[in-house]
Design a protein that fits this description.
One of its GO terms (biological process) is protein import into peroxisome matrix. The protein is mostly beta strands and 433 residues long. The protein is built from two helices and 30 strands.
Length: 433
C-alpha cells in the first residue's frame, strides 16, 4: 500500500481575471478564485482509462482501464488542507472494463462490504467484492457474473457495456441493488440476489449513448441518443419512451437527472451545448454554450441545486449557474462569456481563437455569465465524477485528477502538481504544459 503525496499545494496557472472583467462587473458576477488541481499518473500501460467510480461514504475511488490485465485501481483520496494525498490500495485484473458503479453501503448488496459493479467488452458484467482497504494480501472476489451474449443474437454489432446503473431505494417495485445495463440496442435489468437471468430486457431505439435513472421517481429513466432526450418508465412492458416535440431536441450524447428536482434533466447536444429540460414542458428551459470541444461529462452539484459541472475535451471543467441562463427558451437573449485561459498547444489556440472571435462582442458587454471556467489544464477529460469537496477526472494522457471546488482548503501557489503512481514510486510534480 503506497501513499502518494504532491510536493506542492497545487493551483491553476496564474491568469489575471481583472483584465477580463472590470471591478463593477466583477462585484456583480462574483467570480470564484481559481481552485487548485492535482494529478497522478495511473500505471496503465496503454493509457486507456475508461471510467471512474466514487464510494458514497468513504474516500475511495476506483479507476478502470480497457487493458486486459492490472486494469482496476483502487485509491483512497484525502483532500487534506494544503496538500491532497492519494493512497493506492490495490490493483485488480478484470479485463477490458468500460463502465463502473460503486454499490451503496446502505443497500442490501452493500452489506457484504465494498462491492463494485463493472461492465466489460464482450457483454460481461462482474459484481466484485473488494477486500478491506488495509489488507493488501487478501484478493478481490467475484460474487456474480452476468453474460449478455447469452440473451442476444450472435449478430449483435457490439457487446461492450458502456452504460450501467444501480437502482435506488425509491425504486420500490424493483429489487434492491438491481443492476441496469445497456448492451448494444437492448436494456437489461438484473437482480443480483437471484439468478443470472434478466428481469427486464427491452429494445432501445435511436442509437442510445447515455442513460441515467431518476433516484426519486420509481422506474423512470432518461436516455440520450441520435433522436435526442427521451424518458422511459421501466414498469411499462414494451414502453417506447417519451420525447419532447421540439426541434431543439437534437442528438444527445450525455444525460443527467437532477438529484434535487425530479422534473429537471440536463443533457449535451451537438457535443458542445448543454440544455436543461423540464419534463413537464415541451421544450428546453434553458441552453448553455461555452465549451469549444466535446463535452464528455456533466454532473449536478451535490449541495447547490442550481449548479451543473461539465468537463470537456477542450481542457476545461466549468461550473454553470442555471439561474443565469445563457439562452432562455423562446428568446434571442444571449449572455455568453468566454473566459477560458489560452491553451499552450497550437491547435487548441487556433480552435479557441476561432470561438473567441465569434463571441468577442458578447464578452465586451456581458454582465451575467452563466458559467465560470474552474479548471484549465490543456487535457482531454474523458470522465468526471463528484467527490469530497470537489471533482475527480481521468484524461486521455492517463492521469487521475482531483479538482478542489472549495477554495478555503488550499493556499495559492505557483503551479498544478503531477505525480506518478507507477510501482508506488513518487515523482515530483511535472512542469505544466
Amino acid at each position: 500500500m503506497n501513499s502518494l503525496t504532491s510536493l506542492y499545494s497545487p493551483t491553476l496557472l496564474n491568469i489575471d481575471f481583472d483584465l477580463l472583467v472590470d471591478n463593477a462587473t466583477k462585484n456583480r458576477i462574483g467570480p470564484r478564485q481559481k481552485p487548485p488541481s492535482s494529478y497522478w499518473r495511473v500505471p496503465d500501460k496503454q493509457q486507456y482509462l475508461t471510467s471512474i467510480a466514487v464510494h458514497e461514504s468513504q474516500s475511495l475511488c476506483a479507476v478502470s482501464s480497457g487493458s486486459r490485465s492490472n486494469n482496476l485501481f483502487i485509491y483512497e483520496l484525502a483532500p487534506n488542507s494544503g496538500v491532497p494525498t492519494l493512497t493506492h490500495h490495490q490493483t485488480i485484473s478484470l479485463p477490458e472494463i468500460h463502465s463502473l458503479c460503486w454499490v451503496s453501503p446502505a443497500s442490501d448488496l452493500g452489506s457484504h462490504g465494498n462491492v463494485l459493479v463493472s461492465g466489460h467488452k464482450g457483454g460481461l458484467v462482474h459484481m466484485t467484492l473488494l477486500p478491506d482497504t488495509h489488507s493488501s494480501d487478501v484478493p478481490a472476489e467475484i460474487l456474480k457474473r452476468f453474460n449478455h451474449s447469452r440473451h442476444l443474437p450472435a449478430s449483435a454489432p457490439s457487446l461492450r457495456i458502456k452504460n450501467l446503473a444501480l437502482t435506488s431505494a425509491s425504486w420500490s417495485t424493483f429489487p434492491s441493488s438491481g443492476i441496469i445495463t445497456q448492451c448494444g440496442d437492448h436494456l437489461f435489468l438484473w437482480d443480483p440476489s437471484r439468478s443470472d437471468l434478466p428481469l427486464i430486457k427491452q429494445k432501445l431505439r435511436g442509437d442510445i449513448t447515455s442513460m441515467d435513472l431518476c433516484t426519486t421517481r420509481n422506474g423512470i429513466m432518461a436516455f440520450g441518443g441520435r433522436k435526442g432526450v427521451s424518458i422511459r418508465d421501466l414498469r411499462v412492458k414494451g414502453g417506447s419512451g417519451l420525447s419532447p416535440p421540439d426541434p431543439a431536441n437534437e442528438q444527445a450524447t450525455v444525460v443527467k437527472w437532477s438529484p434535487h428536482n425530479d422534473n429537471l434533466v440536463a443533457s449535451v447536444h451537438n457535443r458542445k451545448e448543454i440544455k436543461v429540460w423540464d419534463i413537464r414542458a415541451s421544450g428546453p428551459a434553458s441552453s448553455y454554450s461555452g465549451h469549444s470541444d466535446w463535452v464528455t461529462a456533466i454532473e449536478w452539484a451535490r449541495n447547490e441545486p442550481t449548479e451543473i459541472i461539465s468537463a470537456s475535451n477542450d481542457g476545461t471543467i466549468r461550473v454553470w449557474d442555471i439561474v443565469k441562463p445563457d439562452r432562455l427558451c423562446g428568446t434571442n437573449h444571449s449572455v455568453r462569456q468566454e473566459l477560458d485561459w489560452a491553451p499552450s498547444k497550437n491547435w487548441k489556440m487556433y480552435q479557441m481563437r476561432q470561438f473567441n472571435d465569434l463571441e468577442l462582442d458578447t464578452l465586451a458587454r456581458n454582465l451575467l455569465s452563466p458559467s465560470q471556467p474552474m479548471i484549465s489544464q490543456n487535457r482531454h477529460f474523458t470522465a468526471m465524477k463528484l467527490a469530497s469537496r470537489g471533482a475527480v477526472s481521468i484524461d486521455s494522457e492517463g492521469y487521475f485528477g482531483y479538482h478542489c471546488l472549495h477554495n478555503e482548503l488550499y493556499s495559492p501557489v505557483l503551479a498544478p502538481s503531477e505525480s506518478d503512481t507507477s510501482d508506488g514510486d513518487f515523482l515530483p510534480p511535472l512542469s505544466p504544459t
